[in-house]
Structures are given as C-alpha cells and as structure tokens.
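Our working data are protein records whose layout never changes between entries. The record below serves as our worked example for the rest of this section:
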Amino acid sequence: MCAAQVAVGETYWGKFSDGPHGTFYDGDPWQEFELTNRFFFDDPNGLRWEAPAQTRVNGASIPPTFWSFIGGPFSGKYLKASVIHDHYVVTRERTAHDTHRNFYYGMLANGVETWRAKVMYWAVSTFGADWELRQVVTYRTECTDDVSVELTCSVKPVIELQPVSVSRVNLSEPEQAQLALAKFAAVARTLKSSDGTILDVSASGPVPADLATLELNARVVGDAIAQWGAPGELDNIGILSDWAAFKGGEVTPWSPNAAEPGSIPDFREALPYDGWAAGGSPDTSLPFVVIDQFQLQNLTARPLPSFRLE
C-alpha cells in the first residue's frame, strides 16, 4: 500500500516527514528554532528538500516587515514550510524560484488556505531574498596518492554553480517599506475577497492569480517599488490599501459582500493618495493609488507600524 494516499480529485502538494522536532531559543533580534533531527519535505514533483539536524532557523526568509499582519513564521500552519524555506534561503543550493515555489507547496501540504498561501508566496517572491545560480570555473589541485610512484600533481578546471545575490526591494528604506506594506495589504485583500482567484487590480483590469502570472506580477511590482524614484515606475504598482485592513492578523475583505468570489474593487474606484488617511482612521473599504511624487511623499510621511518580532 502506498504511504501517501490522495483522495480522487484532490491535488497532492507533497508530504512532510514527522516533526519538526527541536528547541526554541531566544535569539537576536528574534526567536530561533533548532532542529534535533533531520526534517524533510517531498514536493509534488518528487524532489526532496531536507534540513539536517542542528539546523537553526529564525523565520526571516518571510520578511519580518509583514509579521505584524500575517503572524510570525512559527505560528499556526506556517512552521513546517518555514523551517524548510529558511534553510534553503540560507544555503541557496537551489534557485530562488524553486525555493519560494516549494514554500508555497509546503503551506498547501500542511493545510494553509489557498488564498493565504498565495499571499505568502507573492510576498516572498516580491520582497524576499533573491539570487541566481551561475556557473563559475574554479581550479582544483589533484595529486597521485600511490606511494610507489613519484608524487605528481595537476590543476584541473571545475565548473560549479554558485549563488549570486540579486538586488530587490530594500525594506529598510522608508519609502520602499511604505509602498511594500500598502501593496501587500491590497494583494492580501484581493486574494481573500476572490477566494484566491484574483491577485491584483491594475489599470488594465483584474490580474489572475495563477502561479505564472503571480510570479510575473511579483517581479514587476518588486522592480517598480525598488525603483520608486524613476519616472513612470509608480504606474506599475496598481491599487494599494491601508494597513488598517489587518486586524489581529486577519485580513479584512474589500467589502461586506466579499465572501462571494469576484467582489473586488474596480481600478477606477481608487483615489489618489493625498493624505486623507494620515490623521485618523481611514475608510479601509477604499483602495488608493500613488502615481506621482507628491502622493508618495504624503504616504511616506506616515509613521511605519510597529513590527511584531516573534
């Protein structure tokens, strides 16, 4: 009998090993978790992702900027996927794309709702670590180990894959952090309101939430925020939302009728950000846009929220 049985009609997202078993430690600046045994995940393509015993992780592969809104990486059903994701973001032995995609599979395999798993996948793809594996030629010296002959050595070229970091959004910059938070809020509300079928709303209309489109959107939005000072880049960001849409780690849908798929705002409903939300409690049912430097200055004049570090 097969160990992993899947009901007819169900999608198989992969399977975790038993655990993870380990110990939490007070870390700097936040809590860390150390594995006492190896822990692995077999993804739906049959590839094994393994974190060895004594691996220590802190959940930071999910940008801590968003923890206040979605909960810490070691809370709820995120823990298993977070441990594997953290390990491979550190080792970078596989591509960033595959590492982040595996995080998505792991969340679904552990019962995270589809819309929420897509929010997290979009967040790490847009704002998380990014790198490329590039071929690099290195040289190794090899010597004979036969004691009956004279020692001879030779230098041979070896092609290796080495990770090279790719510059993306810098969340330590206030302008980029403000835009990132507002965009994250809008994407989360749109995905929840559409039951995971619509990712975003742009000037050209709704953006579907299939994985290929999600990955492209993450790249476009990330580049636009990273280059926020360049003319025209803000046009690519689409609708934004106030952080007040998050209450106690829960996402507020766009409207009371948002339980029905498709209840998302039209881009034409979005208001230019002119400081209307700066002094009090904004109407969180309304999306807004930032398309010029004046609106951006109004947005970034607001204090950033306090991040909960767990």
Remarks:
- Residues 1-8 have pLDDT under 50 and may be disordered.
- The helical segments are 67-70, 79-91, 96-109, 114-127, 174-193, 211-226, 293-300.
